[in-house]
Amino acid sequence: MSIYKHHYRVYTGRVTPIWTRIFALARYGLAEAWSTKITTVLFVICLIPPVGSLFTIYLSNNPAARLLMGNVGTRVLAIDGSFFLRVLTIQSWLAMALASWIAPRLITLDLVDNALPILLSHSISRFGYVLGKYAALFATLSTVTWVPCLLLFAYQGYASPVPWAASNLRIGVGMLAGALIWIALISLLGLALSSWVKWRAVATGIIFAVILVPAGVGAIVTGVLHTKWGFLLNVPVMMSFLWERLLGVHSRIDNALQLPTRAIVTMLALACCLSMVMLNTRIRAREVVRG
Amino acid sequence: MGTVELDALEVRLGGRTILNGLSGVLRGQAIGLLGPNGAGKSTLINTLLGFHRASSGTARIFDLDTYRDRAEIRSGIGYMPEGDSFIGNMSGVHFVRYMAELAGLPSAEALERAHEALFYVGLGEVRYRKVNSYSLGMKQLIKLAQALAHGPRLLILDEPTNGLDPIARQRMIHLIQEIRKEGSVRLLISSHLLRDIDETCDEVLILKSGRIAALCNIEEERRSNHSFMELETVGATEKFSVSIRGLGCECASFSGGRIKLVLPENIEARDLYRIASEQKVQIRRMHVRRDSLEDIFLRAMDTEGERPAHVHL
Question: What burial letters (b/e) apply to A133-151, b meaning 16+ CB within 10 Å?
C-alpha cells in the first residue's frame, strides 16, 4: 500500500505501548481545543491578571518604583495570603470560563458524529478515553491556574528583601492544592455535561448554569431558613471557604456560617462522582453500534 | 488455531439472551457473518471486540480471550462499524492518522500510512477535505481506510456496502477481494446481503435468533452438493429420460419437454448429448445450476421451519 503503487501493504514497524495511546487522545483533544481563535482570546484574557499581579509584586518589593508611581501605600501592596487568595480566585473563575468553552469541544464532536464505536474499538478503555480528554483539559487549565500562581509565588520569594518563601510555604502548597481541586471539579463537570448535550454553545451555557443556579438556590435556602447548610449548593462559597483554609487566610464571613471542611470535601467529591457516573453512562451507551 | 473460536458462547443483554450457545471454529481467510436482522450479528461482533462480556462460554480471537485480552486483541483488529462513525470536523487524513495513532503507530508512521490508506481506498484526492463533507460512499471508504491504516491481522467489516450505489458497492467488493487476495489480513464480514458474502468470503457463519444455523466452507459446501441440470428437449422426452436414468442420474420429466436431473460425478454433459443424438432428441437448452449461497442460507433458515426475513439478493 503506497501512494504510487495502490496495493495493500502490511505494517511491520514499531508499535507504541498501549498506555501511551491516552496521550494521543490528549494531544488530538488539545489540537481541537486550540483550533479556534476564541480559545486563544480566552487564554490571553486569563493571563492578564497574573501580569497585573506580577507588576504588583514588583512594586511591593521595589521602593524606587513605588516612588515613581506616586508612593503607593505598602498596605495596598501587601503580598500575603490574601493577595494570593485573590489571584487564585480570579484565575480559578477565568479557568472556569475557559473550561466551559473547551470541554464541549473535546467531547461533543466525538458524540455528534458517533465516533465512539471507532475510537473505543482501539486499545482504549472508557476510562482511558475520559483520562485522555481530562488530560487535555488539565493541561490547558493548569497553565492559567496553579502554574501562574506558583510562578508569582516564586517571584515574590525571589524579589522579597527578606526570606519569604520558606515562611509562607503554606500559601504555595495551598494554591497548588486549591487549584488542583478546582480543576478536577470543573473538568469532570464540564466533560460530563458536554457528553449529554449535543450543541457546544448550549453545553457551555449549561456548565455555567450548573454552577450558578444551585448557588442561587443555596443562597435562598440560607437566607430563608437561616441555615449555613444552604451553602452546600453554593460552589463559589464552598470553594472560597476551602481556598481560605488551604492558604491559611482569615475568612471575612461569620464563623457561625462557616461550613465544616469535611462537608465541603464530601460535597465536592459527590459532585465529581456524579460527573463520572454521568460520563460513564453516556459513553457506555454510545460505545457500540446497536444492531 | 482458528481466527475465531467460539465455545458455548452465551451473551445476555438487558435480561435477554442475544447469543445462545454458539460453538465453532472459524478458519477461513474471509468469514461471512450472515443472518436476518436481529439474529445477533452485531452483538457477536461487539463481543469479539470486547464490548460485551460473555454470560457463559468463551470467544477467542487468535487464541486470546475477547474480553480479558481485549486491549491486545483490539491492537490487531481493524473495525469498520455499520453506521456513520467518524469525527466530521477533521480532514480525512487527520482522522485516519488519529485512528492509526490510537492503534499504536508512532506519529510519523501514522501520517504516512494514513496517506497510503486513503490513496488505496480511492480517497487520495479528497484527503484534505473535512469528513462531514464526504458523500455516503466516501464515508464508507474512509471507515475502511481507518480500519486498514495500522495493518491489522483481522479486519471486521460490519455491513460494508450499506447504502452504496452499484458502482460504489462494486468498488468496495473489489477492495475487499483484493485485501483477501493479499493474504496477510483475515476478514470477518457481516452482512444481510448474500451477494456480498458470496463474492468475498470463503467461509460463512449463519446466525438465526442468536444460534448458529450453519457454519460451512462455501466452496466445499457447493462441491459436496450435486450438480443440478435443467434441460429443454424436443422429441421423445420420456424415452430419453429413461435412458439417462440408466446412466445413474436422478431425473424428473415435466410437460413441454423439460427435464430436471442431478448429474453424478462420473457423468458429463457430452454423455447426455450422445444419448440425445442416438434417440434423435434435440436439446434446446441446458442450464447447469450449482448450489448458491442462497440455497445454503435458505436451507439453514429452513432447519427450524421458518423463512428468513429481510434478506435481499
Answer: bbbbbbebbeebbbebbbe
